[in-house]
Each structure stands twice: as structure tokens, then as C-alpha cells.
Amino acid sequence: MAKILLAEDDETLRNLTRTVLEINGFEVFAYPDGELALEAFPGVSPDLVVSDINMPKLDGFGLLDAVRRLPHGTVIPFLFLSAQSERDDVTKARRLGADDLLSKPFEPVDLITAVQARLERRRMIELFDTRQAHLQTITLLANVIEARDAYTRGHVERVQQFALELGTALSWPATALATLEYGALLHDVGKIVIPEAILNKPGQLTPEEMSVIKGHTVAGAHIIQGVSHLKEARPYILYHHERWDGRGYPEGLGGESIPPEGRLLAIVDVYDALTTNRPYHKELPTREVLLFLRSGAGAHFDPVMVELFCKIQEEKLVA
Ligand SMILES: [Fe+2]
């Protein structure tokens, strides 16, 4: 339930506003002047403030100014109820960072609409900020892992881009694309357990070294285990080295029993590996790589996904 701090000196109007807000499901903390409202602010920790302008002790402008200086007050939506909707009031309210101004007497529906709109906007901004911070942390982690591997600079970010292109072309829903965004970044997180000497070895790997490399899928899934907001990335991490024909690792799954996240990432991971320099090969021309990908349709790769991916990359070559 959203908490609203209400400051209004007119008792009748204060009670009316409180009632309107409460019957619409808000928890209201009401005060007769700005000073008392400001004192209550830290304890209440409201989601939104509704305030009159002309009040004793501390007026609405003073309250807004003081709230904006509090640690949690800078981003709180602030709505004014103004008796005189004079131009000066509106300008001053906007300059101080008020989010809206309703003229008294107001219709209850206008107040509720304004409150809901501001709360919804605040929620969207918070979601966006959280998602951005989350992605930045994951990028940091991916870059730390990549820094140990001299040959894969920029790999995870390119893989993320290619994966988003393919996921979008497959009409995956927004929630799946949001997971893809960090799943692609994290897909090789398990490489953290692989010794650098093996990771950066220029020559042929021994069978033992190869099995150490292969372990990065299971190790990665293990690393994110228990991190609830990363659990959706598991299929990207665990299954990006599976093959359509069942000859991949770690589980040797085949065809559609491989989760789609793994099938998608297998294509873009190989594409980026072949189009960039690696310890074991020089980068290859895009057309040659696309030919190789198509030759793996139904063997290494999901035939529908790989064809779609090749078409997207071909369109870029023509453009
Ligand atoms: Fe990998």
C-alpha cells in the first residue's frame, strides 16, 4: 500500500482529502502544517507528498524545499493543492521541483488520477534504474572474467548484441529478452575457474585441458546458484555448448530438448569466435563464417535459428 504524506491546514479539506485517498487504497499520514509534516517525513518515509501551499509555520514551498534536501526526499513525487492557481504559484512550484499542482476545489477523480500517475512514473523510473544498475554489475563481472582471457576482448558484449538481434527476430517476449541481455553477458562466467595457462594456450589442447575448458558450463551454473535475480540466466550458462545432434556438452542434449536459450547462444557464440582472432585461429571473413554456420544447420545448430541468424547478418553486409 502506497504511503502518502498530506499537509493541509484546513481541517475540512484535510479530512476530505484523506478520505478520498484512503478509499482509493492509500495509507495517509495527515498534518495541519508544513513543520509537522516535515518532522514526520523520515519516520513515515512516504511514497508521495500532497501539500497545500498557504499553511502556518512552514508553507508548502518551504516544505517542498526542505523535503528535496532530505536523503530520501529528492525523488519523492510532490503534488501541490493550491487555493489560488495563480501563474506565480505554478512557476514557483515547478522551479522548486513540484510534480503537479491541483487547484482547489478539486474533483476527487483528478486528485486520484494525478497521484496514481506520479506513483506509476516513479515506479517505472525505479525499475529502470534498478535494471541499469543490475546490468552494469553484470558487465563488470563479465569484464573481469574476460580480462583473464587475452583473446576474447569485447566478446561478451558482441555476443550480447548478436543474441539480442536473434532473440528479437524470433519475437521473444520482452521478459525473455531482458533475461537474454544478462544471460548473454554471463554465459562464460564459469571460465573464472579455468587456469590462465589453459585459457590462453596458443597450441593444441590436451584431452585433460579440454575437459577443464568444458567444465566452465557446469562451474558457471554453480556460481550463479542461489543468486535469485540471476537464476534465469542458467540455461545460457549451462547449455551454450550443447549441439543439435547431441554431441555437445555438458549433458549431450539434442534437438529441442536443448533449452532455446542454449540453442540461440551456441550460434552467436560460435559466430563471434570465428569472426575474431583467437589463439587457435585467425579471424575469418563474415561470408565464410555464415557458410560454415549454415553447413552446421541440423548438426551443430538449430536449423531454424541458424538460418534466421545468417539472414540478419547477410542483410547487414548488403546494407
Ligand atoms: Fe563458453
Give an account of the 3D structure.
The chain is an alpha/beta fold and 319 residues long. It has two domains: 3-122, Rossmann fold (3-Layer(aba) Sandwich); 148-318, Orthogonal Bundle (Hypothetical protein af1432). It contains 14 helices and five strands. It has a five-stranded parallel β-sheet, sandwiched between helices. Helix 6 packs antiparallel against helix 7. The protein is elongated. The model has no long low-confidence stretch (mean pLDDT 89). Fe (ii) ion (FE2) is lined by residues 187-188, 216, 240-241.
List the helices and strands and how they pair.
Blueprint: E1 3-7, H1 11-23, E2 27-31, H2 34-44, E3 48-52, H3 60-69, E4 78-82, H4 87-95, E5 100-103, H5 108-147, H6 155-169, H7 174-186, H8 196-199, H9 207-214, H10 216-224, H11 234-239, H12 260-274, H13 286-295, H14 303-318
Parallel strand pairs: 1-2, 1-3, 3-4, 4-5
Helix pairs in contact: 2-3, 5-7, 6-7, 6-12, 13-14
This protein binds fe (ii) ion.
Low-pLDDT stretches are none
* Order of adjacent strands in the largest pleated sheet: 2-1-3-4-5
Main pleated sheet: 5 strands, parallel
CATH class of the largest domain, anyone? Mainly Alpha
The tally of structural domains comes to: 2
Task: Label this structure with key terms.
319 residues; alpha/beta; binds fe (ii) ion
In a nutshell, what does this entry contain?
This protein has 14 helices and five strands. By secondary structure, it is an alpha/beta fold.
